[in-house]
Amino acid sequence: MVKNVVIVGGGTSGWMTASYLTAAFGDRVTVTLVESPGVPTIGVGEATFSTVRHFFDYLGLDERVWMPECQATYKLGIRFENWRAKGHHFYHPFERLRVVDGFPITDWWLHQGTGDRFDQDCFLIASLCDAKRSPRYLSGQLFEQEFSEGGADGMYRTTLSEQNTQFPYAYHFDAAQLARYLTRYGVDRGVRHVLDDVTEVALDQRGWISHVVTREHGELAGDLFVDCTGFRGMLLNQALGVPFQSYQDTLPNDRAVALRVPVDMAARGIRPCTTATAQDAGWIWTIPLFGRLGTGYVYSSDYCTPDKAEQTLREFVGPAANDLEANHIRMRIGRSAESWVHNCVAVGLSSGFVEPLESTGIFFIQNAVEQLVKHFPNRGWDERLRRAYNRQVAHVMDGVREFLVLHYYAAARADNQYWQDTKTRPVPGELAERIEQWQVKLPDTDSVFPHYHGFESYSYTAMLLGLGGIKLQAPPALELIDGAAAAGELRLVRRQAEELMDKLPSQYDYFAHLRGLP
Ligand code: FAD
User: Fold this and answer.
1) Is 228 in the pocket of ligand 1 (CB under 6 A)?
2) What does pTM read for this prediction?
3) Adjacent-strand bridge partners of 299
4) How far is the C-alpha of 484 from the C-alpha of 218, rounded, in Å?
5) Residue 198 half-sphere exposure, CB side, CA atoms within 13 Å?
6) What are the Cα distances from residue 180, in Å, to 19, 33, 154, 359, 445?
7) How confident is the model over 397-432, as pLDDT tens digits?
8) What is the pLDDT of residues 305-314, one digit of tens each?
9) How many CB atoms lie within 10 A of CB 207?
10) C-alpha of residue 41 to centroid of ligand 1, in Å
11) Strands, E, within 358-422: which ranges?
12) What would you report as the CA-atom Rg of the chain, rounded to the nearest whole angstrom?
């Protein structure tokens, strides 16, 4: 068997990989993680995607314990501001659609043609986000009664492929604190942690990695090497020469500038969602943690300079941004042609990345480590396992790319060159045909990107209805069907939302209670 794994890189991807492999294989596999004491991690990546609970559950980590240690908060969806027009907002919630008489409730909403808050009319979560509510009562009970926590009753662990129910939330957390938490988790379970620089990646005569050379700890040999070195892709791209396929022709944002802003959350409240606010050359993320905001401007260097971007971000944040140091980041958008070559697998930014508009970076990592376990090789290094792995992770990233391109293409906003160009730039794959189809029939399982990529058809529907740039029509059949049941269901959503807003504590109160604060 392949028993000796060497991970290079100690950012979120390195420690997620180390802890997951340890949780999966215990001491049957030896894991060594080497990270540079001098090369910093990317320092962002603090909003996640609703599938992330599988990861923490798999590790056996209780969120009541780890969340307070990582300044974590709940995230019930994403709030999009100013994408349709300045002053407008809508939510992409982590909530599947109700279906009435065979038609999703959004079809009925469109048919009814009243109001402009499809999100509040069709989903509970939009109202909870507007009102800054916690998804849990102070007792710990979840607002979503029908959602069964620990779906497997704790008998076995689940992974992404068993996502039968939609988790109603994801997390925001401090990336550095989470990496430290996972470091302790891994080291306690036997991960060998080496703080050193890798100075050379040595190949054998077949071109496979035989060992890496470190500055102070000599050579580290292994069977399988995991490249978690971030955008530099030191093992996969540099040493093995695997080419990188850019997505930049369709997703031009290539830079970001970020700030960590201390905030009095008791006064401000904690909105249970990430906010993406459209700007002149991109968008600004706002991630509320318990005690600070993570914020950053993602933009295209074709339309904006780093100085202008930083100024925009500082103005957006206001006086709280004074004296804070900005972190300027160049982003490599796209994916490695193959993420697994010979005995090297890239996980994290070295494998691929798209701008964080739907918070998918950590989801890519989670997906990659789960797939690595499912395709884990033996000494025969069966090519079929490797090829299947590469296909799956490529589909995930290509699918997310399509979904993100839709965000720009379908946004009504077209008030400057940047936003006008989002309507004329070529779109990838079959997205153009799909959009034509969605104009007469909102997305369903058969009409979205056909491979698993984390997003279901309801997400596409929410974005199309919220962004407002594409003319949509309800199915003509609804003219012929009695709409009384659907009207009742739409009223029920509003009533349930009002009841929940009355009963649920604010997200700040929930975490203050969990931490024993007055
Ligand atoms: P890094 O954090 O760059 O870590 C690289 C590691 O390699 C470091 O430990 C470094 O020391 C080590 N290293 C490098 N060279 C050597 C060497 N020679 N020897 C030894 N060690 C070495 N994802 C989300 O899910 N949600 C978000 O909201 C989100 N926002 C983002 C915003 C921006 C602007 C960017 C750029 C990314 C964002 N991401 C987000 C993605 C997320 O940040 C990354 O997926 C995640 O942090 C993983 O990074 P990484 O571990 O692959 O790389």
Assistant:
1) yes
2) 0.97
3) 255, 282
4) 74
5) 28
6) 11, 13, 26, 21, 39
7) 999 999 999 999 999 999 999 999 999 999 998 999
8) 999 999 999 9
9) 11
10) 5
11) none
12) 23
